[in-house]
Amino acid sequence: MERITFNEIPKEMMGNMISTENYINNSSLDFQLLELIRLRVAQINKCAYCVDMHYKELKHTGETELRTSTLSVWNETSFFTDKEKAVLQFTESLTELSKTDISNEIFDSLTRFFSTEEICNLTLAISQINTWTRLMRTFKSTAGNYKVTK
């Protein structure tokens, strides 16, 4: 049972979260890459609501079943590009910051593919989905009902 419904979340708080989401989605970062990040963070943080949402968003972008089903073991597959691998490594390091450091090697791998502005936006996107997963887990948002609207 949900502890706090979407309608009970303070409107100003939700407005600011959505505003940040819109900023990220309108940045130069590829939407499909953003959704890979979001799904991976949702998996790590065990947020069923967010896993459901971002799996459906990825499928809507045309992402393959093979890649979505192996995202949790991306580093053991050949299905992801070097660019995606750099982002996923950074995503995991930033999400599990208390367990691991963001080494120079991890950061430098991003600079091969992304500008300084894009790295800033990647960092914000990862931080934002970490915030969403924590909210949804705390509020016990119900998984399974999300519908892609685009």
Tags for this entry?
150 residues; mainly alpha; AhpD-like
* Overall number of structural domains: 1
- List the secondary-structure elements in sequence, H or E: HHHHHHH
Mean pLDDT: 96
Strand content: under 5%
CATH superfamily: AhpD-like
Tally the beta strands.
Answer: 0
Structural class: mainly alpha
What oligomeric state do these chains adopt? Answer: single chain
Overall, the morphology is globular
Q: Flag low-confidence runs.
A: none
Could you say what the CATH topology is called? AhpD-like
Radius of gyration: 15 Å
Q: Between the first and last Cα atoms, what is the distance in angstroms?
A: 28 Å
Per CATH, which architecture? Up-down Bundle
**Tell me, what is the CATH class?**
Mainly Alpha
Estimated helix fraction = 55-70%
User: Helical segment tally?
Assistant: 7
Major β-sheet annotation: none
Provide an overview of this structure.
Helix 2 runs antiparallel to helix 3, helix 2 (31-44) runs parallel beside helix 5 (82-95) and helix 5 (82-95) crosses helix 6. The chain has helices at 11-25, 31-44, 48-61, 65-69, 82-95, 104-111, 116-139. The radius of gyration is 15 Å and the shape is globular. The longest helix has 24 residues, at 116-139. The chain is mostly helical and 150 residues long. 63% of the residues lie in helices and 0% in strands. It has a single domain (30-139), classed as AhpD-like (Up-down Bundle), CATH 1.20.1290.10. It comes from Flavivirga jejuensis. This is Carboxymuconolactone decarboxylase family protein. It holds the Pfam family CMD.
